[in-house]
Amino acid sequence: MDRAYTAQQQNRYTRNMPNSSASTTPKYFLEAAIETALEAGKILREEYALPPDILYKGDVDLVTQADKRSERAIVTRLSRLFPEHTIAAEEGSGHVRSSEFHWHVDPLDGTTNFAHKYPCFAVSIALAQNGTVVAGVVYNPIYDELFAAARGLGATLNGRKISVSKIETLSTSLLCTGFPVHKRRANPNIHYYYDFTLRSHGVRRDGSAALDLACVAAGRFDGFWEFGLQAWDTAAGVLLVQEAGGAVSDFHGHPYKLGGPVILATNSLIHEEMRETALTISQRDPSAPLQAPAQATKE
What we know:
single chain, alpha+beta, Fructose-1,6-Bisphosphatase, Chain A, domain 1, D-Maltodextrin-Binding Protein, domain 2, 5-stranded mixed sheet, 14 strands, 34% helix, 22% strand, globular
């Protein structure tokens, strides 16, 4: 299903794009990521209207034709624009280059939602330069919501500036988290989910870490935590939160590293309260460690 919105977004963000890929400004990279995400989003809308074509990478870890088509389109476009850059894509079609620039691509974050026709999923594309994310996009094609950020230039939703919420206490906050699709008994998060649910207005679990982080940036959620996420799950969302005025760390308060075992992202006002709560949970229950036992698979 084509939408006028998509064409308008492309015109809005790409009319000033340089003809050469020699530019290395965050704004240029962001414009390229936006154009690429919109193309991938169109593919996801087309696939969403069809009966799901599902394969399994494990007992319950699924992948759809939509994942593959979206990733091919993203990798093809980024490779054409930036042939010297490394591209890491979830379904494995990227490539490694000797470059300071590294793209992190999730062509469909929320595959399980997509397969069940639950419209909470997104394209997530981010570029890191020497390990620091400089541009990121999270795009939900069903609701036509394009979250975008370039380092030092703020974060936007459909072209309008966004900022994190002003909620000051954990007790009045709305939080979000996620769980892996298998080996849930080995994942410590159920302990944190229980406590944070009791200590807040509630915890939502929508099945897309990229969108969860984007919603923290937009002030819809006040805090997010999860274990075992991959770099392509979080890279764009982390930059969105930071550029919207939020805070991101691990549970020890150290800067979050892409692909790290634990992520905590908040509006900054409740960050220390959430972090101290997590420490309390881990100390009370030895089976709820601060480090995830293994990398999680996608939801």
